[in-house]
Amino acid sequence: MNLLKEVFAHEVYPAFGCTEPISCAFAAATAAAELGEPVESLRLLVDPGTYKNGVAVVVPRSGGAKGNLVAAALGAVLARPDRKLELLDETTEEVLRRAMEMCDAGRCEIECVAGQNDFRVEAVVAGRGHEARCVLSGGHTHVERIEKDGQVVGGDGKETDTSHNAPLAYRAALKKMGMEEVLALAGQFDAEDRAYLRRGVEMNLALSELGFEVGGTAAQLRQMHRDGFLADDMFYRAKLAVASAVDARMAGAGQAAMTSGGSGNQGIVATLTPYLVGRDMGIDAELIDESIAAAHLVNAYVKCFVGELSVICGCAMAAGVATATAIVYQQQGIDVRRITLATGNVIGDLGGLICDGAKPGCAMKAVTAVDSAIRSALMALKGFGLSADDGLVGQTVEDSLRNLGRITLEGMFQVDPTLLRIIREKSAASGKA
Questions:
Q1: Residue 372, domain CATH
Q2: Which residues contact 15 (CB under 8 A, 6 or more apart)?
Q3: Which single residue of 122, 165, 171, 245 could bond 158 by disulfide (Cβ 3.0 to 4.6 Å)?
Q4: Does 101 lie in the same domain as 65?
Q5: Which residue did the predictor score with more confidence, 80 or 165?
Q6: Single pTM value for the model
Q7: Nearest of 264, 262, 286, 261 to residue 274 by alpha carbon
Q8: Is 123 strand, coil or helix?
Q9: What is the predicted pLDDT for the residue at 157?
Q10: Are residues 163 and 205 in the same domain?
Q11: Half-sphere CA count of 430, side-chain side, radius 13 A
Q12: What is the full DSSP assignment across 76-99?
């Protein structure tokens, strides 16, 4: 098994829109393609993490509509699972009209499955007396099961929490490794991988260019610079580019992002920050590529400890640790001591920062993640790091990540249920329930 290529295949891919709503679209499209009839009704069942990430983010090509259900309705009408998480780029005015008619007529419904801690999306579509079902689990494009009229017709048919599940076996292998072993994989990429990494940078830079038209967090950073509150330095340039890309993505821009760990926002942080910092510090272009490969690997590694969709902010913790590691890697290679310091600095700084769903405010958290990652890496390069006596920080990278996983999966298990109650109360108060 080539773990680098497995991570690239399953966690680093283009996504046209926020990955949770688009995964709902992909599940619905997969079920609709199997149905083989025009979809007349749709039922969507999702885990709490997917539910919260679809509430406030604009679905691309939807005319400004938000939510997992709208995305799933578009996917059901399109029935193009071959396009995976880029399928909504195929949306036309006719597709949008048919999808919105189905939603407005009450023929689409969504249910948040309480107690479902892992990523899971189930789409059930019906039409002309037939029914089809698609279940995604473990990853945004990982099809566990496809059924038609109650008969299993596709999917790998395995639960995703077992190392025997071939498509996700790489995660079990990755989690058994130490950080040094994980980073050693970064130097194993070939010319095809390098081209793919550079494509990811180009995609996310293109998305960043679109974000300046949104008028969100990036526009505020620019105004603060004009007002003399922010200097035009490496920190500012990296934060500006990342914020702009996230602004565009959360506003439903018509440009795909290259993901990391299956997340577009994490992909933006983990690709653009090492790229821009490396370029600013005069790092060789090929070493920058290698450091971005390291960032993708570390992002996947962190999520082995904290989960696919965590109650904590993935941009801050997974992508933050990954980015800090990549910056150290550019300067010192696999320097375990400094990487341990950088990881501890990020976790000590941002540990516990919650994910309250995908929305325009994610750009604010992405800016925080970029600032912390660069600062933590530069401090580590000078030999400074928070000690193992400091909260979640452990003696090793692995200890710190295990501690982070424990506080996330054990200590913060009531965060998502509480957050969902807050979201529903807000919706009811505004008449959107």
A1: 1.10.4100
A2: 22, 85, 86, 140, 256, 257, 259, 264
A3: 165
A4: yes
A5: 80
A6: 0.93
A7: 286
A8: strand
A9: 64
A10: no
A11: 7
A12: HHH--GGGGGGGGGG--HHHHHHH
Residue in the block written with tokens 């949008």: 96
Q: Of 168, 202, 222, which marks where a domain is finished?
A: 168
Domain assignment of residue 11, yes or no: no
Q: Answer yes or no: do 285 and 142 share one domain.
A: no
Dist. CA 65–CA 412, nearest whole Å: 31
Are residue 300 and residue 321 in the same domain, yes or no? yes
- For 277-309, what is each residue's pLDDT tens digit? 999 999 999 999 999 999 999 999 999 999 887
Range of the domain at 25: 16-168
CA distance linking residue 96 with residue 61, whole number of Å: 8
Instruction: Find the CATH number of the domain harbouring 133.
Output: 3.30.1330
| Structure confidence by residue, pLDDT tens digits, 370-395 | 999 999 999 999 999 999 999 999 99
Task: Kindly state whether residues 117 and 260 are assigned to the same domain.
Answer: no
Domain end call among 148, 168, 188: 168
- Residue 337 in any domain: the answer is yes
156 and 73 housed in the same domain: yes
Q: Tell me how many domains the chain contains.
A: 2
- Write out pLDDT tens, residues 401-413: 999 999 988 898 8
pLDDT tens sequence across 4-28? 999 999 999 999 999 999 999 999 9
One domain for residues 358 and 290: yes
